[in-house]
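Before the break, one more example. Copy the sequence into your notebook; we will annotate it together after we see the structure.
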Amino acid sequence: MAVMDAAFDPAYGEAWTRRQVEDALLVGNTQYRLIAATGQPPLDHEAAAGFFLSRTGFEEEELLLLGVAPQYRRLGLGRRLLDWLAKDARERGADRLLLEMRQGNPAENLYRAFGFTPIGLRPSYYRAPSGGRIDAITFAWPANS
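Here is what the structure looks like once it is written out:
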């Protein structure tokens, strides 16, 4: 939760609450991974630098959240998390990954570099700090899906 609080700009309301995360994990088809600043899973009592939360569906895996604490960004941790997600999802039988994000989110560069491509748009899905609304973009990977 510390990474979630640090990684997501509160102005957009994208971070989940502890209760939302707990409820998602209780469903049974939701997974997570933590990463330390070293790029490996955290050792006992080692702080997490990033995480992902995903949900398995029929031949698909949806990336629900991916966050890296600001002080650990640009070190390849986000890419490592996506590598783990893709490997884990394939092992669970997923043919593709899906994600949805706010238009203008800087993480779009990471997702596109990994090979995600836009496949849809949800108009006015997210709230803007100004009180307006921002479109959500749906992405899929692999690019040929």
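The first strand starts at residue 30 and ends at 35. The chain is about 25% helix and 35% strand. Try to locate both features in your own notes.
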